[in-house]
Amino acid sequence: MEEVLEQASLARRAHWLVQLRWLAIGFLVGAVFVARRILDIQLHEQALYILAGIILAYNTMLHVALRRTDRRRTEQAGNALHRILILQSTADLFILTGILYFSGGIENPFSFFFMFHMIISSTLLSRMQSYIQATIAVVLFGLLLLLDYTGLVQHYPLRGFAPEGLHTDGRFVLGYWFVFATTVYVVVYLATSIVAQLRKQQARYRNANEQLQQKDHIKNEYVLRVTHDIKSHLAAIKSCLDVVESGLLGPLNEEQTDFVERANHRAEKCMHFISSLLRLTRMRMTGHFDRTCFPFKNLLYDSFAAIEDRAAAKRIAAAYEIDPAIDQVCGSEVLLEDTLTNLLSNAVKYTPDGGKVILRANDRKNEVLVEISDTGIGIPPEEIGDIFNEFYRASNARETVRDGTGLGLSMAREVIEKHGGRIWVESGPEGTTFFLTIPKDSAIS
Amino acid sequence: MQEGKILIIDDDPDISEAMTVVLESKNYQVSVARNSREGMDRIQAQKPDLIILDVMMDTPQEGFTLGRQLKEDPKTKDIPVLMVTAVKEKTGLDFKAEAGDETWLPVEEFIDKPVKPQILLEKVGKLISKRK
Predict the structure, then answer these.
(1) Contacts of residue B18 in chain A, CB cutoff 8 Å?
(2) In what order do the strands lie in the sheet with A367-374?
(3) Domain A292-439 sits in which CATH superfamily?
(4) How large is the ipTM?
């Protein structure tokens, strides 16, 4: 897993370098053209264009080679990728030296561009490889200066830009090369050190994250086992109470009925809580659910219908504004309906008699935006960040409705996020609005 | 009046007894088996008109295995099976609440535990009358 991930990011960077090189070719051709034709600087135009052609050729080859390694995610492909990175980096150094040779050598300040290569090598290659690249740069540039100085090769001066004869001034050449070499090594030293620190930190984070995930998994397993056990006992309790309550074992007097009903009611609440917890935990663990495409408008109407009576009983004016353009949504119909019904029933629960609850839904390009507003008790501002947490219940919610589970909103968030959507809330003294976006065709994450 | 023979296969004695009381109130003849082996024996001996089968018995999915076996055997494949389950969340299987998916689990009906007496009688009545 780690190996592949590392490889994927290496591959991305290798592609990025190829992209940069296309730009560099354009820049080179442009610079040569401007220098020669507009600034009237003497340089070996033809040779430089040929060099641009060479870069073009090997960049194309690299592009093809990378495409090929992309398709293989094996260790060999990883090694091949590494070789390609070293190869292109080295090729760049040779080409840059060639360019400098045909455009003045020491007279050409573009020798600074070696530093780009040093920084790139330091971030992509190992520390050792980076120093090897630095040494190649220092030797190549040194060789260029030396050959120019000794006159063993022809010098192509940058006439019209730099004073002539710099390349034969021994002290200047040596000094220039010395500063060049130290700069190259210091740059590589600094860049590799920074990168090493970052990598170490990254590894630490990754490690911590893995440990957290592991712990979370253990927690979920535990919750699953415990809740399932509780659920089977509860099922038995309820089955027995149901038999008594139904009067099959003989009639009950009023008081007996009342108490059995209470016990049954509490068992049912507990059952509901356990079922929610099981569903939430299972979703966290498996991370998948049945996905179908269905008319979302119907789901909105159904969720609304589910709370209409409860709202009417509290004389709450419940209304909906549903955009007729809303059509199909792909996802889990059951979970999405549960989520909406749950948010709507919260709105009714926490809105005093005579208040208002509105369900709004708007079609937006790739998603549906749902808003559920109420004129209820609101959420204290300092608690708004916590309400989506498991088992959290806002202080005023606890006072209003005693036996909530604190799981509804964390479930809602889990469902919406699994669909690739977002859920957030705005709340003030005049009421609360929950917003959800649901992508129409979510690749479920 | 004899309404029909029902076999409950469930390892939870409280639940099976509660179901027995409910079913006997409508004059069904009820017997109980604690696991699938005992269930198989009873099926051979009593030829029930309906089997109420729990999914989780000694081993998870024991009920599923038995359900499939019953439907493969020509002698038992016509006996309707009502599967009772609290297992949904545990196994992560998402089966339809209504009639079982014939292709992989050939049972006639699924209900969630705990079963309300009224619902149990309704489903049982429907399955038995269909058979007659």
Answers:
(1) 236, 239-240, 242-243
(2) A317-322, A356-364, A367-374, A431-439, A422-428
(3) Histidine kinase-like ATPase, C-terminal domain (3.30.565.10)
(4) 0.79
